[in-house]
Amino acid sequence: MPENVYFITDAHLGSWALDNNREREKLLIDFLDSVRDKAKAIYMLGDMFDFWYEFKYVVPKGYTRFLGKLSELTDSGIEIHYFTGNHDIWCFSYLQEECGVILHKEPAIIDINGKKFYLAHGDGMGDPSRSFRILRSIFKNRFCQFCFSLLPTRWSIYLGMRWAKHSMKGHLDSGIVPYQGESNEHLVQYAKQYLKNDDSINYFIFGHRHIELDLMLSRESRVLILGDWISQKTFAEFNGDRLVVDNF
Ligand SMILES: [Mn+2]
Fold first, then answer.
1. How far is the CA of 79 from the centre of ligand 1 (A)?
2. Residue 189: phi, psi to the nearest 5?
3. For the chain, what are the domain ranges?
């Protein structure tokens, strides 16, 4: 029986700011193939697509290898958990119905082999910034989503892809913000604060920041930020006993 559990994040497939989308998609497929015989479950922690929006009868072009692989793996009995990030908030039911993934729109606490995992994309968590909250509430608003979905898809998808490109270009031009240190890194702050009320979490695992961090918060609690699948190809493997971070 395959017993391992894998964690990956932030592939930003299809980004208009990157010119190696097909290669990255293929490498991601190679990774999924390389773990398929060992994996009981795979957790994707958000922003696997640079922009995803589902309409009632239409989904964006592309990603066929990735979508096919998700379907193949779930058909073979591997659990795939898909967390929405801030670039794919608008996953509704397609990935569940068509590809068999388990969709998470909120952080989740999951027990794996007696260890407690706190899993989330991580955007906005521990971050007091108001502008971010306002933007997020607009993105999540059902009425705004309804209005957006009334646009012709050649406009709505174009606007979404342009917005995502702008955000990615910002990262590329100025470089990813480096690790801010234990007292300034929002996700570390969030985990520490969380532990004050509930110290039973063994592993916090986040994406979103595109940096790799692996930090012990106490003897029993560890926080990981999982890099990305753009340049780092980061994954974590939990074999039921130990959690190891590596690059594919
Ligand atoms: Mn993100």
1. 22
2. -60, -45
3. 4-247
How far is ligand 1, taken at its centre, from the CA of residue 1, in Å? Answer: 33
CA of 242 to the centre of ligand 1 (A): 26
Q: State which CATH number among 3.40.190.10, 3.40.50.2300, 3.60.21.10, 3.90.180.10 fits the domain covering 4-247.
A: 3.60.21.10
Rg (CA), the chain: 18
Instruction: Give the three-class secondary structure for 203.
Output: strand
Instruction: Output the six-digit token pair for 193.
Output: 């604060």
* 4 C-alpha to ligand 1 centroid (Å): 25
Distance 28 CA to ligand 1 centre (A): 18
pLDDT by residue, tens only, the chain of 248 residues:
889 999 999 999 999 999 999 999 999 999 999 999 999 999 999 999 999 999 889 999 999 999 999 999 999 999 999 999 999 888 889 999 999 999 999 999 999 999 999 999 999 898 878 877 888 888 888 888 888 888 888 898 899 999 999 999 988 888 889 999 999 999 999 999 999 999 999 999 999 999 999 999 999 999 999 999 999 999 999 999 999 999 99
- 86 C-alpha to center of ligand 1: Å? 5
22: Cβ–Cβ under 8 A, 6 or more apart, which residues?
Answer: none
Cα of 45 from ligand 1 centre, angstroms:
9
Q: Which amino acid is at 41?
A: A
